[in-house]
Design a protein that fits this description.
Length: about 300
C-alpha cells in the first residue's frame, strides 16, 4: 500500500477535471437566511476523468456523505475494514462516519468518476431512513445518463455563482440526483433551456479579467441599462455588477485553493490593479482574507500534501 501511495502522490489534479468546493461561510449564511430550504445540501462536487494516481485516505472518516459514480475503468474503496472494487457503471455511497475510509484509482485502468459530498443537520437520521450504512457495497446501475445530466445541471448552477437562489436550486436538485441513484427506474430525463440571464452570467464568467459596466452588458442585449438591471435583479436578487464581483470572488477561491500565485497576481488576473482593494472585497464576500483562506484550506483540506481530494 505504501508503494502505491508514493506513486499516487506524483500527480495532483487531472486533465479535464471539474471541481467546486463551496466555502463554509457561504453555506452557513445561506442556512441562516432560509434554514427550511437547506435540510440537505451539497458541499463539494467534481468530476475526475481517467484519474491516474487518485488516492484519498480519511483516517477519521468524513462528516459528510460521499457518492462516487464510476463511469469508466475501476477503483477501490476501504469501508468498515472491508475492501471493495468499484467498476464502471457502479456507484458507492459512503455515509458520514468517524471510521476509517480510503479510496483510490486502479493503476492500470484508473477510474473516471463523478462525485459529490452532501450533508444535513440530520444526516445520520437520513442515512438510517434510507438504510445507508458503512456496510454498503458498490451498486451496479445501468448507464446512468439521467444522473449525469442532473450532475451537470447542479455543477453549472454552482459554477454560475454562489447566489442564494443558485444554492437553493442546487439543494433542491440534490434530492433528485440522489433519487436517480437510489431509484433509477423511476426517473426520466428532460431538457434544459437557457435565457438572457443565463447567457449574461456566462458572458461574465468568460470575462472575469475585465472591468465590465452595466451599460456594456445591456448594450449587447439591445436594452437600456435600467431595464436590463431590473430584469437581472429580479432573476438573481442581485445587481449585475454585484453578481460580477461575486463570480470574481468565486474564481479567486479556486485560484487560491488550487494554485500557488501570490494574492497580487490573482488580483491582476481578476482585473484588480490594487491588491488591497481586492483583499477587502474578498473578505467581505468570503469571510476571510485571501491569505487566511489559502492557509485554512491547506490545513483542513490537505492541499499541503499531494493527495487529491474528493
Amino acid at each position: 500500500m505504501k508503494d502505491l501511495q508514493r506513486k499516487r502522490k506524483i500527480r495532483d489534479g487531472f486533465e479535464g477535471e471539474k471541481v467546486i468546493y463551496i466555502p463554509e461561510k457561504i453555506l452557513k449564511d445561506a442556512k441562516q437566511r432560509t434554514p427550511a430550504l437547506f435540510h440537505l445540501y451539497i458541499t463539494q462536487i467534481g468530476y475526475f476523468p481517467k484519474a491516474a494516481h487518485h488516492y484519498r485516505e480519511r483516517k477519521t472518516g468524513c462528516s459528510e456523505n460521499i457518492l462516487i459514480y464510476c463511469t469508466w475503468g475501476k477503483g477501490y474503496c476501504i469501508l468498515d475494514n472491508k475492501q471493495y472494487e468499484v467498476n464502471a457503471n457502479q456507484f458507492i455511497l459512503i455515509p458520514a462516519t468517524d471510521r476509517y475510509i480510503c479510496y483510490w484509482a486502479d493503476e492500470s485502468t484508473p477510474w473516471s468518476i463523478y462525485w459529490f459530498h452532501y450533508t444535513s443537520d440530520q444526516i445520520d437520521a437520513i442515512n438510517q431512513s434510507l438504510h445507508i450504512t458503512t456496510s454498503s457495497r458498490p451498486v451496479s446501475i445501468p448507464a446512468n445518463e439521467n444522473s449525469i445530466r442532473i450532475w451537470h445541471t447542479i455543477y453549472k448552477t454552482l459554477e454560475m455563482g454562489y447566489s442564494h437562489e443558485n444554492l437553493i436550486s442546487a439543494s433542491f436538485s440534490l434530492f433528485y440526483l440522489i433519487a436517480t441513484f437510489l431509484f433509477p427506474e423511476r426517473h426520466v430525463a428532460d431538457k434544459d433551456s437557457g435565457d438572457i440571464i443565463t447567457k449574461t452570467i456566462e458572458e461574465m464568467r468568460d470575462n472575469l479579467q475585465k472591468k465590465l459596466t452595466v451599460e456594456q452588458i445591456a448594450l449587447k442585449h439591445r436594452m437600456s441599462a435600467s431595464h436590463f438591471s431590473s430584469l437581472f435583479r429580479k432573476a438573481t436578487n442581485m445587481a449585475p455588477i454585484d453578481y460580477f464581483i461575486h463570480l470574481k470572488m468565486q474564481k479567486a477561491c479556486q485560484l487560491l485553493y488550487f494554485g500557488t500565485n501570490h494574492v497580487k497576481e490573482i488580483a491582476l488576473e481578476l482585473g484588480y490593479d490594487n491588491p488591497y482593494y481586492f483583499s477587502r472585497l474578498f473578505k467581505k464576500h468570503i469571510g476571510t482574507s485571501p491569505k487566511e483562506y489559502r492557509q485554512l484550506n491547506q490545513a483542513v483540506g490537505g492541499r499541503g500534501t499531494s493527495l487529491v481530494k474528493t
